[in-house]
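pasting for the record
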Amino acid sequence: MLVVAGVGARTTISASAEGSRPFRDAVSSKEELAQRLLDALEKKDLQGLRRLRVTETEYKDFVLPGSVEVGQPLRKYPPDIADYAWKTLDTKSLYYERYLIHGSGGEHYQIKDMTFDKGVADYATYRAYRQLRLALTKKDGAPGELATGSIIEVDGQYKFISFIRD
C-alpha cells in the first residue's frame, strides 16, 4: 500500500499500479512521439492527436497525484478539484489541437531538432519534458517550427500531458 497525502485526511491506495504500464497508446521514445504528432498533423487526424496525450483516467489516477517532488507522498485530490484540473487541461488541449491542425495540418515535416523550453523535471511518479519545441524541415526544404506542450515519461513510455504550449 502507498500512503497518499490528501487534502484533509490521509488515505491509502493499492500499490498494484506501481511498476505497471499505466498508459494506453504510449510510445517508446520522445522522438517517436514527436513523429506521431507530425504524422497526425499531416493527416489532419484529430483523433490521432488525442491518442497521443494522456486520458482523463490517466491524468486523474496517475499524473495529478504524482505531481509532487520526488520522495514526497502522492496527493489525493477531491473529485471536484480533479475534475476541474482535468477539464481545464483537456479543454485547452482540445482548442490547441485545432490550432495545430489549422496551422500545420496537411504539411509533411521532418524533425531537424527537438528541445524543451522549460527543461526536464522529475516528479514522484514521472519525468516531464516541458514545452516541446521542434525545428522542422518542410517537404520543399523550407525551415519550419512547432511549439507545443509537455511530455510525460513513465517506465520508458511517453505521451503528451497536454498540447498547451505556454
